[in-house]
Amino acid sequence: NFLGLPIFSTTQAPYDLVHTGGNFMSDGFGNAFSSYLVYDENGPGGQFNQTDKTPAQVDGLMDQWMGINQYITMPTLPYDAIHHIDMHMKLLNEETLLVGKYPAGIADGPQIEANILYVLNNFKSSFGTPYKVIRIPMPPANNEYPDTDGDYRTYANAVFVNKTVIL
């Protein structure tokens, strides 16, 4: 009101859209990443939205309201209870992904590997280059991983301060 600017929001049908913050990463150039949680929250049985949306409708709203023209979505992880993309993957810059790595065949490792292969085989960065991948360990909790009742631990859900990633 102070600046006399209009307010736009995705709170009313047919533009209503629910999107969990930890499940959205954007490079600022029209590319973004999410898990299928965004489709679950906005689809049939989604508890927050006013109208059921198909994945194509969600993608359309992301393009229309957020300028996301390459929306890369991938399956949720079987042991990550919150299904946020930042639990296993983070954009470091427009071309580089920080990706969690479990020991072979452990917990969410196979799905993470399938997700990152999907990205690398099907998408390019905003500069038309292949994404670079930097791996970071997914640590155990008391020598246990989530598939053997260990707590879900991740270094991928990190904080950026200037040019530093704080784990």
Per DSSP, the total helix count is 3
Please indicate the percent range of residues in DSSP E strands (runs of 2 or more). Answer: 15-25%
**What is the number of E strands?**
8
Note the main sheet: 3 strands, mixed
Helix content: 10-25%
Radius of gyration (CA) equals 17 Å
For the structure shown, list the relevant keywords.
167 residues; three-stranded mixed beta sheet; 8 strands; 21% strand; alpha/beta; 19% helix
Explain what you see.
- This protein is of the alpha/beta class and 167 residues long.
- Helices cover 19% and strands 21% of the residues.
- The protein has helices spanning 37-42, 55-66, 109-122; strands at residues 25-26, 31-35, 70-74, 89-93, 96-101, 132-137, 159-161, 164-166.
- The strands form 3 sheets. A 3-stranded mixed sheet has the order 1-2-3, sandwiched between helices. It has a 3-stranded mixed sheet with strand order 4-5-6, with helices on one face. Strands 7-8 form a two-stranded antiparallel sheet.
- The longest helix has 14 residues, at 109-122.
- The radius of gyration is 17 Å and the shape is globular.
- The model has no long low-confidence stretch (mean pLDDT 93).
Structure described in brief:
Helices cover 19% and strands 21% of the residues. With 167 residues, the chain is an alpha/beta fold. A three-stranded mixed beta sheet has the order 1-2-3, with helices on both faces. It has a three-stranded mixed beta sheet with strand order 4-5-6, with helices on one face. Strands 7-8 form a two-stranded antiparallel ribbon.
